[in-house]
Every structure is written in structure tokens, then in C-alpha cells.
Design brief:
Structural class: alpha+beta
CATH class of one domain: Mainly Beta
Shape: elongated
Distance between the termini: 93 Å
Number of helices: 7
Order of helices and strands: HHEHEEEEEEHHHH
Number of strands: 7
Oligomer: single chain
CATH topology of one domain: SH3 type barrels
CATH architecture of one domain: Roll
Helix content: 40-55%
Strand order of the largest sheet: 6-5-4-3-7
Strand content: 15-25%
Length: 204
């Protein structure tokens, strides 16, 4: 299975949320469990279901607690029993609430599949905690080697010897010798004579 790259653009994130299929929407409707449930079940979050008792944590209705009557996956909202408001015409309707604003205080475990989900998530979390508690042996070895190793000793820098300048008389003599060498070029045969000698040899 090919790994999916995380989407970082807000426009694409919104598009994915509104066009998500039903099985993905189910996961997006997750809410955190209360501290008591987290301690007993060893699970942090679960998707909400009708029958769960929830407490509203944020918003105008903060502190209200009740059972979930229905979950609207199309609008990403849940409806809590007893939380209603009156319309202008006098009819009462349920107040829609986003699942991120609530905390699950009691789980509805009528469904056997939900029990299996809880067991699976609990096992995964226990494994993660075990790995976090005991660091790998390789990390320990590396730390010990770093402690044992000492910093290399710095070698003293060698000072460069100052070049003493030659007197002016020696410089003048050196220049004269160089000029003599340049004055004596190597003797080369003229080109015309070479050709003449070749012709005479060919005529013989």
C-alpha cells in the first residue's frame, strides 16, 4: 500500500473534509474521554455514538451533561438529549454541537465491535508505553562511548621563519647573471638554408 503524504494546504484540507466518505467521517467525529475513563480503559479518544453520555466543555452550554440522541455525519454535529432551543415560530429544536467541544463521561458498550476497538487501542498504547520506558541498547552504547572519548590534544603551531633580505650588492650580481643568460640565445639554422641543402641532396 502506497503511503499518503500529509496535506498542508488549508483549501485542500477543507475539500477533503467536505468530500470525505462515510467511514472517514466516522473517525473525524471523535471526542476525548474523561480522565476517569482514560485511567480505566487506557484509551484517550473514541468516535462518539448515540447512547454515550457527554459533558460540554466549551461554548455557551459549557457544563451541560446528557446522552447523545443522534449523530449527523453530513454536518459533523451531534445532538444531546435535553439541550434544545425555541425558534421564532415557537417550535423546539436540538442545538447542534461539534464533537470536539464535548468530553465522553460514559460509554455505550452495547455493540460488540466497539469492545474490540477498545481492546485493540489499549494494546497499542501499552506497547508504545513499554518502548518509551526502556530506551534501545544502541543509544546507551553511543552515550557511553561519547563519555569515554577524550578531546584530541592540540598540537603547538610552528612559527614561520622570517626571510632575511639579501644585500643590494648580491641582488645586483644576480640580475647581471640573469641578463647574460637571456642575451645568449640558442643558434638556429635559417630556414632557407635547410631547404637548399635538402634540394641539393635530392638532385644527387
Amino acid at each position: 500500500m502506497q503511503a499518503m503524504k500529509p496535506v498542508t494546504k488549508p483549501t485542500k484540507q477543507r475539500k477533503m473534509m467536505y468530500q470525505a466518505p462515510d467511514h472517514v467521517r466516522y473517525k473525524l467525529l471523535a471526542a476525548p474521554l474523561s480522565p476517569e475513563l482514560q485511567a480505566s480503559r487506557r484509551v484517550k479518544t473514541l468516535p462518539v455514538r448515540s447512547g454515550d453520555t457527554v459533558r460540554i466543555v466549551r461554548g455557551d452550554h459549557k457544563g451541560f451533561e446528557g446522552k447523545i440522541t443522534s449523530v449527523d455525519r453530513k454536518k459533523y454535529r451531534i445532538y444531546v438529549e435535553g439541550l434544545t432551543r425555541e425558534k421564532v415560530d415557537g417550535t423546539t429544536i436540538f442545538v447542534p454541537i461539534h464533537p470536539s467541544k464535548v468530553m465522553i463521561t460514559n460509554l455505550n458498550l452495547d455493540d460488540k465491535w466497539r469492545k474490540k476497538i477498545l481492546e485493540r487501542k489499549r494494546g497499542i498504547r501499552e506497547k508504545i508505553e513499554e518502548v518509551a520506558e526502556r530506551p534501545p541498547k544502541a543509544v546507551k552504547k553511543v552515550k557511553e562511548e561519547v563519555v569515554e572519548e577524550k578531546l584530541p590534544e592540540k598540537k603547538p603551531r610552528k612559527r614561520k621563519k622570517k626571510v632575511t633580505e639579501k644585500p643590494e650588492e648580491e641582488k645586483a650580481e644576480e640580475k647581471a647573471e640573469e641578463s647574460k643568460k637571456k642575451e645568449k640565445p640558442k643558434a638556429k639554422k635559417p630556414r632557407a638554408k635547410c631547404k637548399a641543402t635538402e634540394k641539393t641532396e635530392g638532385g644527387k
